[in-house]
Structures are given as structure tokens and as C-alpha cells.
Specification:
- This protein is mostly helical and 92 residues long.
- Helices cover 91% and strands 0% of the residues.
- The mean pLDDT is 83.
Length: 92
């Protein structure tokens, strides 16, 4: 009886340990991804600031808010395209 309980408890501890390590790894990956996203955000903002006048002259209507929305839409489309490509790459 005690051996059975000990085996069951030992098995549960091993399962918990594996799940803990898995979730900890996912958390760490998420944290690194968040930091990378912030760095990309800063880089994209700086790029936009450098080329802001050229972008505003290219767009037929004026306005900072509209320009920001158009840039956000463009970056979102690019991100979706990149996510689809990465997903297809990881499936293979």
C-alpha cells in the first residue's frame, strides 16, 4: 500500500516537474519575445521619424494621425505575412 502511494506520488512529482519546466521555458521565451518586440518597435519608430516627411509627401492627404494609421496598417500587413511564412516554415 505504501509502495503504491510512493510510486504514485513520485510519478506526480515528475509530471509536475516536467510541466513546470515546460511552462517556465514558455515564460522565458515570451519575455525575450516581448523585449525583441519593444526593440523592433523603437527601430521602426525611428525609421518612420527619419522618413516622416517623405512618407507624408507620398500620401495624397496630410495629417499625422492618418499617416500613423496608414503606417500601422502597412506594418500589420507585413507582420501577418511574416507570421504566415514563419508558420509554414515551422510546419515543414
Amino acid at each position: 500500500m505504501i509502495k503504491k502511494i510512493t510510486r504514485k506520488t513520485s510519478k506526480q512529482i515528475k509530471e509536475f516537474s516536467l510541466l513546470f519546466k515546460k511552462h517556465l521555458a514558455e515564460f522565458i521565451i515570451g519575455a525575450f519575445s516581448f523585449v525583441a518586440a519593444l526593440l523592433w518597435r523603437d527601430a521602426i519608430q525611428e525609421l518612420i521619424n527619419v522618413y516622416r516627411k517623405a512618407i507624408e509627401n507620398f500620401i495624397p492627404f496630410q495629417g499625422i494621425l492618418i499617416t500613423k494609421f496608414l503606417i500601422a496598417i502597412f506594418v500589420s500587413i507585413f507582420a501577418i505575412f511574416a507570421i504566415v511564412l514563419i508558420s509554414k516554415f515551422l510546419k515543414d
